[in-house]
Amino acid sequence: MKKENIIELFRRFQQANPHPKTELRYGNHYQLLTAVILSAQATDKGVNRATAPLFKIIKKPQDLLDMGEEKLMAAISSIGLFRSKGKHLMQTAKILVEQHNGRVPKSREALEALPGVGRKTANVLLNTAFGQPTMAVDTHIFRVSQRLGLARGTTPLAIEQKLIKVIPQEFMMNAHHWLILHGRYTCTAQRPKCETCLVVDLCGYGAKHV
Predict the structure, then answer these.
(1) From CA 102, how far away is CA 61, in angstroms rounded?
(2) What is d(CA 131, CA 46) in angstroms, rounded to the nearest whole number?
(3) Same domain, 125 and 156
(4) Residue-number span of the structural domain to which 66 is assigned
(5) Per-residue pLDDT for 156 more than 70?
(6) Burial (CB count <10 Å: 0-12, 13-18, 19+), residue 67
(7) Tens-digit pLDDT profile for residues 136-153
(8) pLDDT of 43-90, one tens digit each?
(9) The CA-based dihedral angle spanning residues 5, 149, 137, 83, taken in that order and rounded to the nearest 10 degrees
(10) Helix (H) / strand (E) containing 202
(11) What percentage of the chain carries pLDDT values higher than 90?
(12) Is 34 in the same domain as 95?
């Protein structure tokens, strides 16, 4: 995609949604970390249903340790892969208490050292919690970036690196939110809504399907 089209694409996203944010519900950085770990291969809506009652009790890592693994597993049992995610959450809570004074660390290295936290999760925390212009490539961004012609690649890391290069800095803080929401509600995996897409004229894929 040409540079001027990339600028126009994100200008339209910005105009339509000036202050995009994650659809995960949380009250602090630790709850955000918990929600993002739970959201792997799960929907935000499903995670929010499980965390709504959980977050009334769990405000900090020590709260989770006090709750115990058995009660945690029961609380998140509606979420896919809940057993492995629950173990990661317990291990992460222990590390946060013992090594980080109960706080979510601000560095990528420290975040990725936590059980259940990979590059994508770290990018979400760095951006949403700590205001860094990172690109968290999920399945939506992986698909949408290639359809739009923003970036092509065979791995999320390759897409991330290319997006960081082509997206103007003025849009980077919110870019991953715009792309995720676009993929979730408009540029869906099956039957994308090209006829109502606000950037269809900038998209080679959409031009073929309208």
Answers:
(1) 6
(2) 26
(3) no
(4) 29-129
(5) yes
(6) middle
(7) 999 999 999 999 999 999
(8) 999 999 999 999 999 999 999 999 999 999 999 999 999 999 999 999
(9) 140
(10) none
(11) 95
(12) yes
Q: Residue 127 burial (CB < 10 Å; 0-12/13-18/19+)? A: buried
Active-site entry in 56, 120, 162, 201: 120
Q: Same structural domain for residues 111 and 168?
A: no
Helix 29-38 / helix 44-54 crossing angle, nearest 10 deg: 130
206 pLDDT higher than 80: no
Rounded to the nearest 5°, which phi and psi values hold at 113?
Answer: -80, -10
Nearest to 42 by CA among 54, 32, 50: 50
- Total domains in the chain come to 2
Determine whether 63 is an active site residue.
no
Active site residue 165: no
Domain end (from 129, 146, 166): 129
CATH classification of the domain holding 187: 1.10.1670.10
Complete DSSP assignment for 39-92:
TTTS-HHHHHHHHHHHTTT-SSHHHHHHH-HHHHHHHTTTSTTHHHHHHHHHHH
Residues 76 and 168 grouped into a single domain:
no
The CATH number for 93's domain is 1.10.340.30
How many Å is the Cα radius of gyration of the chain?
18
pLDDT confidence tier of residue 205, bands split at 50, 70 and 90:
confident
The token pair that represents 18 in the structure block: 């000036």
Given the residues 60, 106, 138, 208, the one annotated as active site: 138
